[in-house]
Amino acid sequence: MATFLILAILALILGNIFLQGGTGLSPRFIFGNADKDMFDVASAGVWPMVFGTAARVILMTLFVIPVGVTTAIYLTEYAPALSPFTRIIRGAVNNLAGVPSIVFGLFGLGFFISAVGGTLDVFLYPDSPKPVWGKAALIWASLTLAVMTLPVVIVATEESLRAIPLGLREASLALGATKLQTVLRVVLPQALPGILTGGILAVSRAAGEVAPILFTGAAYYMASLPQSLTDQFMDLAYHVFVLSTQSPDIEKTRPILYGTVVVLLLLTFALNLVAILIRARVRRNLRRLA
Amino acid sequence: MKTLRACLLILASACLPGGSLLADITVRGSDTMVILAQKWAEVYMSQHPGIKIQVTGGGTGTGFAALQNQQTDLCNASRPIRPQEIANCIKAFGRRPREYRVALDGLSVYVNAANPINELTLAQLEQIFTGRLRNWKDLGGPDAPIILYSRENSSGTYEFFKEHVLQGKDFAAHAQTLQGTAQVLQAVSRETHGIGYGGAAYGVGAKHLHIKKDADSPAIEPSEETVVSGAYPIARSLFVYVNPALEKGDLAAYLKWIRSDAGQAVVKDVGYFPLPPDARAR
Amino acid sequence: MLVGATNSSLAQEYREIIPPEDFARVPPDRLRQYLGLTRQQFEQMDEETLKDLMSLRIEAKAQMPDDPDAELNTTEWRYLLGPHQWTGYDRPAYIWQPVSQIHKYNLLPLFIGSLKTTFVALLFAVPLAIAAALYVSQLAHPRAREWLKPGIELLSGIPSVVLGFFALIVMASFFQALFGYPSRLNAFVAGLALGLAVIPVVFSIAEDALTSVPRSYTEAALALGSTRWQAAWQIVLPAALPGVFAATVLGFGRAIGETMIVLMASGNASIVSWNLFDSTRTLTATIAAELAETVVGGHHYRVLFLLGALLFAVTFVANLVGDLVIHRLKGRLEGRR
Q1: Helix/strand/coil for C92
Q2: Which of A168, B277, C94, C282 is the most buried (most CB within 10 A)?
Q3: Helix-strand-coil percent breakdown of chain C, rounded to 5?
Q4: C108-333 carries CATH number 3.50.50.60
Q5: Chain C contacts of B82, Cβ < 8 Å?
Q6: Preferred mutation among B27, B54, B55, B71 to probe A, highest tally of A CBs within 10 A
Q7: Taking 70 as the threshold, does the pLDDT of residue C4 lie above it?
């Protein structure tokens, strides 16, 4: 019963959103610019927000995948399973996953913007009257999100690494490959789909987050797309927040609001779906291997 | 997979060539003014291609903090700067920020359209928003609790209302704080017993109360005439502050344009009140 | 830890006033300290600017409220946690009014707000999620399971800002019309929306724990003549009870840390009240709404970071407890202990 109640609520929410928002969806809306008037129902588009969201999650992937994957490889392939150090890392990863997103926002502001950005400014642009790095920017938002999604990538990668039969590694080692060669040439390629899943899950989680980017990069309005890493950006999820709380006339701009929500949902659902499909395929393959 | 990764890399590097350091002009501050500032930016940019203006809200307090931390070029403010804030700016960049009055605004008090009450005195407003009056029947309305809507404490509107209507007293704890004037308005239009305040530019869907200075004075409706003449009791100027060191070139031209006829026409479009010509000088 | 270094007392700051006319008479170092300048700043300023700063201090003092509370350093722990009889209030009260002539930073209203919304969320989400987990893991046809599980997990794919938007635009009016309570945005509405975000968390952990109960338990019960439902309810659920507990604790951690939903749907009034239909202000929403406007390094900024640290500590403990319990349970069920 409860299961169906939950599904019914889910259907109700999605139904409401898609019924009201689906009609307003058009190529013009998705690819249209918002530089004329972002609150004008007839002409406003969400392309700058789509672009901003895409830019921040792609950048985030570039940061999080290398770090996450190497950590996972270290944990599964190299680290002694029961040493206190490994346990501490594992515990830290687990806890990182449970830290509230707003705390990451605070961390991003305090560490990346004030500490790192501020220091960069002191050394690189001592004469600049205004900060270049020490302010909210695309790169800091992406880095903050990367820290937040690190556990997702680590856990997914670890899972796929562990699923690879030990025999494969032993065969490679027996043929004279070094440990590093084995990891890079034999284990890693097998684990790629898992890593990809982790990446996609991280992206879908990050795409919908607002709290971590509130102070680290999102802009209420920008006339042009972000041009560099130190620019701020407009963002789909943040735009949902802006439209539902700060638009000049909430009733009138409601079609834009619903449209934006639909675009955001389609994006995150599509990503989730891809991740689920890949994962299902990986599991099937593994079952066959085992 | 390799192709995918390559694509991502190319995409990322194509989109984001590092090094361009400037959105030419960044504007930050008052939420009340964010729509106005954005409209200014849109119109100005359409006339001056090649100049980029970036507008962020967050509240007047945010704007001053950003001005003093040198994170913005222009600071929109819906209240005058405080001595402490001036001092902070001097400490940060050695000079007083320059102040420009750019528009006038009346603060409206909204109630639901179904509410029989049409006018209140400033004293009554103070009692309502500090939580001393809690029921509409004390004001001659229906027997129902008064639902208060206030703004987030970063907003200049919040501070202005607190200073000029509440005489510096705290808002009642049960006042709900919302993120934008539009949200206050939406809440009041849906809540029969609600009352809220915000810029006169907003205001579709709710009733604007007429305000009396005290019990004996006439009830004044917020309108261009009453706000510009100063008859409406809860009116204010809107300001832009700038670090004088930055006021040159494009930035100076933009500031000048804001106070020109063209810029002031935008003020009217958005629903605030343009400065009378003699007030534009400073 | 973050607050200790600051003193928000207004009077303290302006106790001493040196008029600009005395400029020449005050030793430079003394003046520098008086104006709160670093050595470098001080050296770069000319006499004009320094005098300007001195007169600004006088202006600031003139604007200072004529209020005995101005003497207090409101960031001391007793004001952060305990009630105080502020000027203009009838009785000692817990007040969160950070932007005020006297900065009042009492954390209690925010704690209550967070607990209230979390309580509603858990009350709504946990029974539903556990029942769903029980059904999916024990009773559902395997093919149905393949559909139901991702279906529920789809809920976790909805960004929290979308749930907040839904609560604000649709649920708030609907429930007000239904129950007729006075305040449209309140802990109840926010809690329900929050519950939707908590369901997938509780569900997947509980489902995991229930699935890891060995099939032999169920089979034994069935062999003894119990129905599938009895076996699930009376055998499997008790065996996995610690897992259910852990799921609840982790759900708690998720709920108390969620930001956007409560920011948009709770009304954000910092009231001390246990009434679920009163509007309420949570720790997370306070940080999100106020941090952007604070002066970096000022007392308001630090208090908000303190809130963040407290939030971190609370979720840290919740996660730790949850993880430990699950580990133990799995160890036991897999017969390692």
Answers
A1: coil
A2: C282
A3: 70, 0, 30
A4: no
A5: 60, 63
A6: B54
A7: no
